[in-house]
Records
---
Amino acid sequence: MEIGIGLFGLGTVGSGVVKILQDNAEQITKRTGAHLVVKQAVVRNLAKQRTGFRQNFPITDDPNDILANPAIQIVVEVMGSIDQAYTIIKQALTAKKHVVTANKDLIASRGQELVAIAEANGVDLFFEAAVAGGIPILRTLSTSFTADEISRVAGIINGTSNFILTQMATNHLSYHAALKLAQEKGFAESDPTNDVDGFDAAYKLIILANFAFGIQPVMSDLTIQGITGLTDADIADANSFGYALKLLGVAQRVGETKDAISIEVSPQLVPFTHPLATVNNENNAVLVNGESVGEVMLYGPGAGEMPTANSVLSDLTNVATDLALNTPGRPFNSFNQNIDLAKPSQRIARRFIVIEVDDTPGAMYSVTGMFAAAKISFTDLKQTPAANGIARLVALTHPASDAQINLIRTTIRNADGINLAAEYKLFS
Amino acid sequence: MEIGIGLFGLGTVGSGVVKILQDNAEQITKRTGAHLVVKQAVVRNLAKQRTGFRQNFPITDDPNDILANPAIQIVVEVMGSIDQAYTIIKQALTAKKHVVTANKDLIASRGQELVAIAEANGVDLFFEAAVAGGIPILRTLSTSFTADEISRVAGIINGTSNFILTQMATNHLSYHAALKLAQEKGFAESDPTNDVDGFDAAYKLIILANFAFGIQPVMSDLTIQGITGLTDADIADANSFGYALKLLGVAQRVGETKDAISIEVSPQLVPFTHPLATVNNENNAVLVNGESVGEVMLYGPGAGEMPTANSVLSDLTNVATDLALNTPGRPFNSFNQNIDLAKPSQRIARRFIVIEVDDTPGAMYSVTGMFAAAKISFTDLKQTPAANGIARLVALTHPASDAQINLIRTTIRNADGINLAAEYKLFS
């Protein structure tokens, strides 16, 4: 059986898809029973030179060359952008073509609608490559943890920010030097906002939360904090307490009866002994905690041409299997339920807190009084000598809720001579 | 739709399966569309007290109560043993019942035959729980790396030996003290041979190699070395060079054109910076290297009642899906090909070598002469002061083949006053 593929986009991932399809054609046919053949690619810029694969298919700039081509059963969308990709995917699904996409922004924001269109048309819509590059986390969540109650899905799901934090921690680079290195190595865009402010991780976390809990969060449901405010001193202090500082995406059940979900992207302190602390540079990892299975972690490359292309290929071979068995149209994730979002009072964790305070008599007494009033108590405390008349106080606290932290933030904001320089959760 | 389940075995894993089916019944039905109901359990010892679940099904000791029960569509075999399990699984498959088993010994030794029987009868035979407990590695290999060429699958796949090695390395216990602790904690049997001599890992590696490379190795194809010969001094020396000592199962393509497979269970030195080095105590991890995807690692609990039961459940829900779609009978692993086993000359790695030599003039000259003759050269060398007139020489070598190592072993065996005390590969 031959299965025709139409490619929207021939950038790094698109080229990788073509290369794997060509290089491993024999193995793919042996394992799926199908010949997967690229019939057409549609690109924005026809003039661009393309290398790394044999070009034995036409390349045009007219979407209809794919959408109206009856020889094409599967559309691969790897061109990025939300609006144009949405239109094309919707048209493809409506034309009863299966769709494989790596577009996390689109799936996170309009996935629910597209999934419904795919179901209505009896075709597959897969997007393994949208989360954590080469790590097969979505298919694993939907096929291997179906019977378990997942209590938490958490991960290092943005390679750019993890690279920057790793370089700051291990090579003692400043944030700006580490960002510059990431840009030189091609891990960061010239405008890194999407990565370093946590939005990219937030899109991926929305998709992970959907697969783990069956919920449909939107961006405004998430607490999102990036890494731009992190300093070398914060990292050094976290290290001295035995923790790595990592940008994590965490979606978890909280509350006494575990009936609410907290979803958050933020820098957190991870104990050096935890597997997540060993995930360095551009690598990603996703941790799944299940009531039955315990703690499982999937680790691997979070981006890159070939790892991401491999996830697209895994989707393509799954469509091929569905075609052979005559079973397409099943949702990638069949899990839907309503769970409330957590209230600030339910989001409880130990904290790493940095306070800068004028080095005057009674200042420390005043600080400790504020925390006592908010019922936040310390487990570890470290004061370093004052520089420029400002003392730096670093503390680890007993568990405290976001509501308590909001209270202390307000108190400190309204006080003179004291500043809450950093506040991060401890991951456990 | 109700799906009837018959359980052979109600030990820890069997009880865990019943517990999850009962506790998560609603979620399982929501996600699979089916009610999975235990109809019957068959055990060896009817007198044994069983707790941890509601016993709302009959327990007998006659296999026919399951095999001849038309209300049972899926047989779960979690009683261990090879011979009796083989007979029961064969009868179940022939009676057109789907089978889920956690029996690694059986699948590793007679899996090929049982898979053929399942296919001929159009029923499923799944065994995710047979390898690495709660880690969903087999389904991942068969659904997410189908289009990739896997170059290596390697892992820490025996929790008992990993617990012992971790305790030796971190708490400086002797081998015997660590084994005793493992037995007290229930991680090791009273006769630990199967775990510490590498046989358990070998069974799992055979199954992993089948899924990764489509080959059908038998036990005699494997090089198997356990951990009983490892000393505290070996571990300390490996650590001092920057490596952890881990019992690994490694199946990889070797040779200039990567056209042969080397399969081996042995202690190896893993760089501290490698993710496998951070896998401690009873945990397991499987590393997959693919030409496209790069390096992916799955980490989690390698044994235990609930993690293993969760893998059985993931198989059960996949059978339920196959029943709903009317697609049972597909092999769990559809990959079959012939690849030659590697020759000793193709098995090349850097080595960690410990030599004990009489502390006499010219002894070291004699040793270095032997290695020069075998064309094995050192990258690191450390000699510690002689105790009882015996000097301990620890070395790391440049890459050397098993053929070269076999040669030097013979040379040393035939020489007086010199002993090859340890020789382990460096994993990279």
---
Amino acid sequence: SSSKVKKKMGGSRLWMKFDKFGESELFEWDKSSIIKRVGIPARDLRILGPVFSQSSNILARERAMVVNLEFIKAIVTAEEVLLLEPLRQEVLPFVDQLRQQLPHKNQAMNKSELVNDRDNKVRSTEAQWARTPEAVEGEQQELPFEFQVLEIALEVVCSYLDSNVAELEKHAYPVLDELARNVSTKNLERVRSLKSNLTRLLARVQKVRDEIEHLLDDNEDMAHLYLTRKLIQYQQSEALMNSAASHSLVPSQHALHRNSSHRSGSIMTSNYWDDDVEDLEMLLEAYFMQLDGTRNKILSVREYIDDTEDYVNIQLDNQRNELIQLQLNLTIASFAIALDTLIAGFFGMNIPCSLYNINGIFGYVIGGGTAFSFLIFLLILGYARWKKLLGS
Amino acid sequence: SSSKVKKKMGGSRLWMKFDKFGESELFEWDKSSIIKRVGIPARDLRILGPVFSQSSNILARERAMVVNLEFIKAIVTAEEVLLLEPLRQEVLPFVDQLRQQLPHKNQAMNKSELVNDRDNKVRSTEAQWARTPEAVEGEQQELPFEFQVLEIALEVVCSYLDSNVAELEKHAYPVLDELARNVSTKNLERVRSLKSNLTRLLARVQKVRDEIEHLLDDNEDMAHLYLTRKLIQYQQSEALMNSAASHSLVPSQHALHRNSSHRSGSIMTSNYWDDDVEDLEMLLEAYFMQLDGTRNKILSVREYIDDTEDYVNIQLDNQRNELIQLQLNLTIASFAIALDTLIAGFFGMNIPCSLYNINGIFGYVIGGGTAFSFLIFLLILGYARWKKLLGS
Amino acid sequence: SSSKVKKKMGGSRLWMKFDKFGESELFEWDKSSIIKRVGIPARDLRILGPVFSQSSNILARERAMVVNLEFIKAIVTAEEVLLLEPLRQEVLPFVDQLRQQLPHKNQAMNKSELVNDRDNKVRSTEAQWARTPEAVEGEQQELPFEFQVLEIALEVVCSYLDSNVAELEKHAYPVLDELARNVSTKNLERVRSLKSNLTRLLARVQKVRDEIEHLLDDNEDMAHLYLTRKLIQYQQSEALMNSAASHSLVPSQHALHRNSSHRSGSIMTSNYWDDDVEDLEMLLEAYFMQLDGTRNKILSVREYIDDTEDYVNIQLDNQRNELIQLQLNLTIASFAIALDTLIAGFFGMNIPCSLYNINGIFGYVIGGGTAFSFLIFLLILGYARWKKLLGS
Amino acid sequence: SSSKVKKKMGGSRLWMKFDKFGESELFEWDKSSIIKRVGIPARDLRILGPVFSQSSNILARERAMVVNLEFIKAIVTAEEVLLLEPLRQEVLPFVDQLRQQLPHKNQAMNKSELVNDRDNKVRSTEAQWARTPEAVEGEQQELPFEFQVLEIALEVVCSYLDSNVAELEKHAYPVLDELARNVSTKNLERVRSLKSNLTRLLARVQKVRDEIEHLLDDNEDMAHLYLTRKLIQYQQSEALMNSAASHSLVPSQHALHRNSSHRSGSIMTSNYWDDDVEDLEMLLEAYFMQLDGTRNKILSVREYIDDTEDYVNIQLDNQRNELIQLQLNLTIASFAIALDTLIAGFFGMNIPCSLYNINGIFGYVIGGGTAFSFLIFLLILGYARWKKLLGS
Amino acid sequence: SSSKVKKKMGGSRLWMKFDKFGESELFEWDKSSIIKRVGIPARDLRILGPVFSQSSNILARERAMVVNLEFIKAIVTAEEVLLLEPLRQEVLPFVDQLRQQLPHKNQAMNKSELVNDRDNKVRSTEAQWARTPEAVEGEQQELPFEFQVLEIALEVVCSYLDSNVAELEKHAYPVLDELARNVSTKNLERVRSLKSNLTRLLARVQKVRDEIEHLLDDNEDMAHLYLTRKLIQYQQSEALMNSAASHSLVPSQHALHRNSSHRSGSIMTSNYWDDDVEDLEMLLEAYFMQLDGTRNKILSVREYIDDTEDYVNIQLDNQRNELIQLQLNLTIASFAIALDTLIAGFFGMNIPCSLYNINGIFGYVIGGGTAFSFLIFLLILGYARWKKLLGS
């Protein structure tokens, strides 16, 4: 089996590991090492692969959460972050933020406290109503490790996308107004490239936004992301079982144990559960609104592009009609002149004509022909105006 | 930690504080002061920032509700409103309404009554069926402080949006009819700016409407907005706990307390809960319908714009075809005249021709050539009509 | 307070009151009288105002239902209908139907029977299976007063909309076929006004349909509309409470009472509830299907308009190409003739040429020039055909 | 009351009655007879009327199901089918199928067995796992009468729609390819009529599909369609009540009875219920997929039409540009010739010129003029090519 | 009955059977043999028929799952796969994968172990937290047979679709850029065929994606797919019943048994159920994301096509206007020359004129006429530029 697995995995890639205190290390791991380390099936590792480079997904698994937000590709467990491609240009701010904020937030917190988290919370809830600033700050520091990482990741991605959109906006309006003023191949090319940039950016923002909305819609999925809680619950139930095992329980209790460990004690603590999903819900809600605002900005740029294109289309059509109207005027005039030329041509024939011998009529002939042509010109012009084909 | 917080917060901004009795005070607060005062995470304060200036959101938090409705940016707690940028032009009517209506509604109500709210309600329900006008008025005065503020905010925003839409409508129809009559660059420019105004206004109305619809869809979110009720429940449960604590309860009761305070006693009073969400539901429903009507008006203007553009497009196309048809008529006639001119040109050549010596045929030659040309003209014209290219 | 209320309400309006037996009276009421009479907040009365003239809403309130279906603006309680603007042209059929059908349906029913409604129903259910016609008729007469009124209103509105759609359809197809045959400004204008009529009518039908669908989707909302049932339940619980009060119950029972009266005894009778929503569901379902059919008819007219416009667009484009093709043919021919004219023009120059002295070549020169021109004509024509620019 | 009913009903219509064994009879019934026979309100009978001729609906009522699938308009009870307009061309296959399949399926089943249906089912479930072919066949024969009829109706309607779509497809592709090759009024007319056929057919398929999807989405609605089961449960509860009545129970038990008969014993047998909805779910699922496939075929034809129209539009535009380019070439050439003609015209003037007396320059003058004109031609052509207006 | 069945079934088709250990056999079966073998109604077999060749469906039935994923048409039971048309080109990789992976995964597992699956799982869950690689591998091998097959099928189909999309992408961008550079009938034809390929491919990817999404949305449907579990539960309940039967239970217990076997013990083991749906959910989620990514790629190609077409449309319109502008320039120039020609023509008339006798004025006449014409040319050109019809 191992040979087959190796063949599939290909070469190893560069990962950076962070723990709670912001300590980082670089590793070269292949797929199977990662799978062993974080306990997820190989199938789920694919979403960190190159196929999903433009996509965004957050997967909740038993002991880890697989985060693929734009350029941030990481696996977060209750105790550490494994970050893929940590040296890419866009990922650096994320690495910086992790180094800065993690030690700060977790310096006073250690494993023993985590188990006492429950009592802790009761106290902080009380304090919360007392309106002391420390309590509020305290609440924010209370977020478990995995959500600290998630918030930093969302922060970095949101501001990255926001700055991209701002740049797009700054660029878009002048280009579009230029097109509205003057339709030229160069301007059209610029608008076209603007549109494909916009479409690509919109798809990316939308993907992150939809992923967060999807999480917000499903309380169960959010509960799955509480890795620290799940770990503590597992440890507690294991401790319980060990003590129970020493008192020789019947196998049917095994099933009970399994259930409570796996579903994290669904019956007993169900109220407790919903409760704490609220922390994550508030976290995600804030970033959802930010991304929704970003998306609305892009959509309004797209509306502006569409409106400009409609305008340009009608404008071009209208200009064409005006060109043709002028041309029509000239065509009518040319027709009259051709008529006059024909008359002159007749009298230029060398076939004998009695008029050729009468002096002093040159002016009258020219005058007569020209007057006749001018009359025809006026008649046709009047007809065209009567038909509303030529305006004033 | 405090130095880092300060750096983030930047300068302080102007806030106006209202209490229940409409008393207002102006303050210069920075972000951290606000956070301490109302107990919300810094993250949630962002939606009052400049990025969300065109957006609308209502966030329910533990002790406060963050209201961002168009230009109204405020934090409402059970006891006071903190209003951001209270001196902006559009915000003034809101300030006026708060000053006028709050003292009026709350003058007979004081804190001791709020705790008795429950009994109060039973009595008012009875009274309600008795059909005395006082009862009805009474019911309306019963709304808790936070919803009084919310209603005033919705009222102000709805009438602001409505007047904007009315203005847009008054402006739009003449502009569009003018375009339908006469396509010109100037009219096109006016329709284009009309369209982008409309799109922006629609986005704003839609945002407020969607936010209210979102709240209406989720009973739990609405329940979170009952700040006064949550405060009373917290006070009651604290009182209970203090008395319990003096009787030395086991820690497991702590958890129970926490649950009931945090989730506002989800099991015991769940029926009671759903019940009172109805007040807010009725409030929001009425404004939702108003905003929906406003939105439908904008949409019908947009439909009219689209129809006009379709009309203009087909009209321009049709006019062009008529122009080309007239041009074609002239082209056919010109062709016939060119033919006749050619014939005349032949006889204008100085190369000897036997006809040059025959007298009296001048008229016949001209007549023959012209007749031939006219015949050609009629043939081509007939062909074009037979092909349905030229109409009658 | 009363002065402020009056200022808001403005003048009084004309209302018509109907009771169960079809007896009607005309009244001049202002807003506050109505609010006192039916016990709804002023906020809800707005949907009967002029802003909502094109909108449709059905609001369920504690003791009344506010019905705004197209032109029918009424407040229905368990015992009477208050109809706004009863003398408008479109409302008259509704008034007629109320006068005709209400006394007929309620003549055998009086208040005492309503309280016995429950037993009544059991009997009718048995009878139902027995397949006697009386039982079926009986079931239909069983509808409470508010639904009798609602059904008459839906009936009147549906047939009004249906006849409007039928008229639109009758008008639309000839106009569109005329446009497809002959694109002219007049026909375009007619289609444009047809489209805006259609859009307006569609919006109205859609609004009524959506409102009914919305009700059908939410069993709770439908249950709120059972005004008669809520009234009886309130009366019963009040009787119960009065007797209980005389036996001095503890306050906690008050809460129970309140709950059961307000939520209509949600636990005990929840099965009973769902059950009777079925009557309303069946009623609304039938009208929903009718409105859905009406809407589909309008949509199919719109599809036809869109298809016709697409057709006209392509047809105009195609005709233009054919016009230009014919023009191109003539341009080629004119070019050849201009060439021939040039040749003739050369020989019309007065500059001495040796050919001028040779007799008998006149025909050859003309023939040569014309043949050369014709050759050029054929070459260009062949080139155009080879390029597929000119068809056969 | 009866006179009013009659007036509403109008004339009687032709119905065909089938019982379980496929025995059919023809009747002339008016609306009121039908209403009495099957126990549905007059309101529901409307969906079989002419207004709904293009629509599809399935209504579940207490004792009957009203089926309006395309041309099949029938009322199905637990014991018989009443088929409207049984002699229409499209309905005949349905009549044939009913005659063929009903006796076959029900010959071994009689009323006494139906009551024993429950035990029966247990046995067949066991048999099912035993993998004997009879068991499988047995399961299929187990469908109650109303679903046998429903399946035959769906079968007939699906194959009818499918054959219509197949015909449309066979017709559509050649017409569209012909249009892409050659845009002509005739081809445009054919595509236009193709499109309106397609739109109509799509609406019909969609309507049937949506109706089935709607049923599949709502387990309660599906449960309502189990007419046979509801009949048996009613009979059982009635028997129970009769025996209970003979033991003089208190009225409160009446309510219980009513509930269990009406809601078919919702609590006790709720598991049993869900279970059997599966039969209908499997039945509808299979036809839903078939209709979904049919719909996808139509949609792909529509996509093909849209793509072809886009292609034709761009193609016509492109062809027009090419036409104008050729015309421009000719215009440039004509301009050059006009210039040359002008030069010749100058020397055709009878005003004395010194060149008129020099022999042998005729050729040079012609050559010079023509060379000059040709140079102008080349200059303008080069300018047009430099501007990218004329291609190679 | 059998004769009718045969007639319906038509000829037999080629099937390949795989068991757990990857052993395959080829069979010629007709429909009725398949129906007997896997116990599904004939109706469900249709989705493997030719009508559904472009569609994708997964049907969960009592003892089998009918899989129609693109080209893979198979029936999977808890113990074997029946694969239709196993020799088609596209199906071969699926056959290969089945042969390779099935024996590998199931070699250590046999029927007796399957019954012990429950205990097994408990152990593996413990192991999971222990972070030993074997545990993780173990978890993956734990998937029941039907999901092993499903995963292989999804794997094969996803990579097939992905490679198709990659090919399409590779082909699309050059074709579209070529069209943007040069609009020609050939390029248009290529884009048109690209579009219909894309539409077809999108429909296929969408169908598979929607089917998986549909499954993911409905936990009950996913639970139905656990064929192995359902089989074990059936066997256990049968064993239980047999022992119960030997103790002569009352018939009412039959019903209980029936329920628990059919609904797989919905009450007792409901927690256990939800739990295991998670395996399938994780499996489907991973492939859903992959298909969603594939779909997004196609959609972005379609966006690019739409943008290119918009660009080409505006570009063609703009080019046409430029063509017409150049033509207008020439028309104005031609008009001036025609005027000049007319003047020359006048003096070419043979009618006596006093100028004919004055020497030395030839140049002045030519100069005067030409100057006049040039002035007219400049006037008209200036007018056109003033009207913004001709640019610089």
